[in-house]
Amino acid sequence: MDTTATHGKWTGRQIMVLAGIWLAFLISFITRLSWATIMPSAIDSLHFTVQQGNSYLTAFYIGYAITVLPGGMLADKFGYKKLLLSAVAGNLIVMVAMVFMHGYWDGLALRFVLGLVSGPDLSACLGIITEWFDGKKRATATGIFNTCTSFGLTVINLYAPTVMVRYGWRAALGVTAFFPLAALIFSYFALKGNPPFPQQFGIKEADGEVKKESSMSRLRQAINNRSVWMLAITGLFATGAKWGVTNWANLFIVKSLHFNIVTAGTAMSIFGITSVISMVVAGWISDHSKLSRHIWAAIFMAIFTPTIIGFALTPHGSLGLLYFWTGAMGVGAFMFSTITNNLSVEVAPADQRGTVSGFINVFNQVGSFLAPVLLGQLLASTGSYVTSYLTISVFPIIAVVALLFVRESDADKNTN
């Protein structure tokens, strides 16, 4: 075992591994967000309606939701690294194919397949973190890893609009396809080597024999764990609120607060910056504190509700308060996710980490899908953006209560 990986500073290999999974998960966000970015140009070129264009967004998340649990189970069976590299390769193939799409149905099928192949990525990445980082460094590593979710939105908007204006939307998709190619090559080499805490494909019995369980047996054990269900409920409400308010923020700033698009973009840039910083800070605090991770997660999540309320009640014309509350909401929306992602593998037995994180991620995806729909329904019934935001601000409170019933695995900490 590499003892330098458990004490003192991070090793060069740990940094390479973290860079490998960071880039691999980053491209997953870039490819999934690519259609939203090029959609205004693509639907005109392909003569799609706005509803047809939006269905491409839905198709991805349906495919993704279908495979997050089976993907986690396969990661436990075949290995985290194999599943992650397979997901990246799948992203590459689908993005290349989308460059040549011509009709509505072939593009819709490709977006659905993109979701299917992306399903195992998060479980595999979190599993790899447990292989390479001990309990004193794991949350910090997870916090740094999580920054790729915010960074993906920045990257796609840096190049795609410019390429699209100059060379067309197909060229923008073609450039996007280079990201999974680069990630596949880099991650393949970055993830080489023997981790200090290798993945366990079974549990060692008292007589020294390793007992291997079936995928369905692992799943049954996972859903009999109270902490797993509490984290699933947390994901349903907190992740739903996070992506609901994030996806609606630009619209709210322009339509309800009556700021221009440029100001909205600046405010959301601040949102992105504070979210990235807060995720890293959350991991560092958790690793260097004696408080349990679930308590820190509850504390960080409790910040979310007042920031949603403050953002929703921003006075018209108050630019300073807009920037303040948007930045504060970035902290509230993302700071907790470092710890909840970490908990999703730490509450699991060593041979069930992929299964458990996949199971919890199903609820994350359902929340991410339903929250924007709920906001739309609230707006349609009340006619008020503010009322819609104030209603969804209750969601993090429910998640805080659920987190208080989570119990971390002492056995996992002792092992690592």
Annotation keywords:
single chain; 416 residues; mainly alpha; Growth Hormone, Chain: A; two-stranded antiparallel sheet; 17 helices; 2 strands
Note down, in words, how this protein is organized.
The chain is mainly α. The protein folds into 2 domains: 3-190, Up-down Bundle (Growth Hormone, Chain: A); 218-409, MFS general substrate transporter like domains (Growth Hormone, Chain: A, Up-down Bundle). Helices cover 79% and strands 1% of the residues. It contains 17 helices and 2 strands. It has helices at residues 12-46, 50-78, 80-99, 104-118, 121-132, 138-167, 169-190, 215-223, 226-255, 261-287, 293-302, 304-312, 319-346, 353-382, 385-392, 395-403, 410-415, and strands at 203-204, 210-211. It has a two-stranded antiparallel sheet. Helix 1 (12-46) runs antiparallel to helix 5 and helix 1 (12-46) packs parallel to helix 6 (138-167). Residues 1-6 and 410-416 have low confidence and may be disordered.
- Tally of DSSP β-strands: 2
Q: What is the ordering of alpha helices and beta strands?
A: HHHHHHHEEHHHHHHHHHH
**First-to-last CA distance:** 12 Å
Low-pLDDT sequence parts: 1-6, 410-416
Count of helix runs = 17
Q: How would you classify the helix and strand content by structural class?
A: mainly alpha
